[in-house]
Design a protein that fits this description.
By secondary structure, the protein is an alpha/beta fold. The chain is 38% helix and 17% strand.
């Protein structure tokens, strides 16, 4: 009798465990991407253009194009390709704050939408949204004739993994990674420690295996209070990145209005002018790139 009870309990445990693994496999797309299928009604306050992009064999994408203040040097301004995180679209408030802060500094911004997000057809996958980012880069180079030395690839959260992949095989002037995970599969394993996540996951997003192929300066922004992407993940990715690189610790969590903790002479000179995330990231980006020599290709930075 006891043996039958034990066998029954073990059988039920195996069935439940197998069912839980099957659920994780079935829910992977929603757990990782949390795609927002509707674009939403918010739009940048800065003048913008909504354009259509077409990847070979892929869906028709949309993207916002925003330019810095118009003057005779507009065509020479750097371009930022902004790659957003999950559970948002190019029209989400936090993403728009990024665009507006960057354009106020005079850079141009291209913000592409991914398949499965914001009304774009398709289902998001790791290779799929990486292709979408490549399509945006190609559009910037071919249609807008951007000099690759003046292209800054900027990724936030999940978008940072897309940014690392893109930067690992294209030319760019610099890379900015905000709240960047070293490996999505590693985070998944931390969240579900009793399951073989590495064997189950189809979209591992292992930036740590690609970061060493980036040949331009990389700026990391991460908060210790980040409850979505652990601070240690950002440091682990930073440690694996080649020089030149810089890690800036910010505060406020994963999707809050950060205030950059400036160091050294930047703190006393620019700290008072950094009231929000948009300004914090923008100022950090501009001055760090200036120090790293982006001005060598002719971009004049004025305050």
């Amino acid at each position: 009798m006891l043996r039958r009870v034990v066998i029954g309990i073990l059988t039920a445990a195996v069935v439940l465990y197998g069912g839980a693994m099957a659920w994780l496999v079935a829910q992977e797309t929603s757990l990782i991407f949390r795609a927002s299928p509707v674009l939403g009604e918010l739009r940048p306050k800065t003048p913008f253009e909504q354009v259509t992009l077409q990847a070979p064999g892929g869906p028709r994408q949309i993207a916002f194009v925003m330019r810095g203040p118009s003057d005779e040097a507009t065509v020479e301004r750097p371009w930022v390709i902004f790659l957003h995180g999950n559970a948002s679209t190019i029209a989400s408030r936090l993403n728009i704050l990024h665009y507006e802060g960057l354009t106020r500094l005079g850079v141009n911004v291209l913000a592409p939408e991914y398949r499965g997000y914001g009304g774009v057809d398709g289902v998001p996958t790791e290779p799929g949204i990486e292709t979408d980012a490549q399509t945006a880069y190609d559009y910037l180079r071919r249609e807008l004739r951007a000099d690759p030395r003046r292209i800054i690839i900027y990724g936030w959260s999940l978008g940072s993994a897309v940014a690392v992949d893109l930067a690992s095989h294209v030319q760019e002037g610099a890379v900015v990674l905000e709240g960047a995970p070293a490996s999505i599969v590693a985070i998944g394993q931390q969240q579900y420690p009793y399951f073989p996540i590495r064997l189950l996951i189809r979209n591992p997003f292992e930036s740590i295996n690609k970061i060493d192929r980036i040949g331009s300066p990389v700026l990391f922004l991460h908060s210790r209070e980040d409850a979505v992407v652990p601070f240690g993940e950002g440091r682990r990715l930073f440690d694996a990145a080649p020089q030149p690189k810089q890690f800036v610790e910010v505060s406020g969590g994963h999707a809050a209005i950060y205030r950059v903790v400036f160091a050294g002479p930047l703190a006393s000179r620019f700290g008072p002018f950094v009231p929000s995330l948009a300004y914090a990231i923008a100022f950090t980006l501009v001055f760090w790139l200036a120090l790293r020599g982006l001005a060598r290709v002719g971009w004049r930075i004025t305050i």
